[in-house]
Sequence to fold (168 residues):
Amino acid sequence: MIEIIKATDDHIKGIIKVCTDAYRATYKDLYTNEYIEKIIKKFYNYDSVLTEVQTSNRNWGGYYVAIEKGHIIGAGAGGILDDGSGELFVLYLAPNRRNEGIGSTLLYAITEQQKALGAKKQYVSVQKGNHKGIPFYEAKGFVFQYEQKSYGNSEGDTYISLRYCRKI
Ligand SMILES: CC(C)(COP(=O)(O)OP(=O)(O)OC[C@H]1O[C@@H](n2cnc3c(N)ncnc32)[C@H](O)[C@@H]1OP(=O)(O)O)[C@@H](O)C(=O)NCCC(=O)NCCS
Fold:
């Protein structure tokens, strides 16, 4: 049985593992190794994830995790933007557990949280060329809006992400 629950401190290491594994598997053909490891170090370190797990407010709704037999096999998080729309900030599954419907159940939990806060629209940014993510969002009714510079870019990085939106 797979459960979707709000993450606690007990889930920090599992969140880091699933996000790190998925990040490497998803972006190995899209980003340089250097960029991948820079982003992992910046976002998926213990202290950052600890803070993110312990924070739950309107702008950051905290992590949801998919757990099977005590193992974390997926993680996701969203929040509400200044204009009242929802945003999906993170959604990753263990690379060998894709296409079983787990991503849909995580997205559902995050979407319900955002609807309860009054969101009528939901945004997500996805890396241009991410064929492990874009078809999922399109299947869920997200529609392409525009291109922008990727969030993790530092000076010299020129990666592009695609902004998608759907009604919720
Ligand atoms: C994106 C991700 C979270 C989706 O979760 P998932 O459990 O694999 O997706 P689901 O099994 O719930 O799929 C739901 C729908 O998307 C479709 N879908 C998912 N991936 C697809 C793909 N690569 N190609 C075509 N359709 C796809 C499914 O057919 C399904 O459609 P349906 O609801 O009409 O039957 C997961 O695949 C993942 O971790 N990908 C790599 C990381 C990533 O890109 N994350 C997003 C970063 S922005």
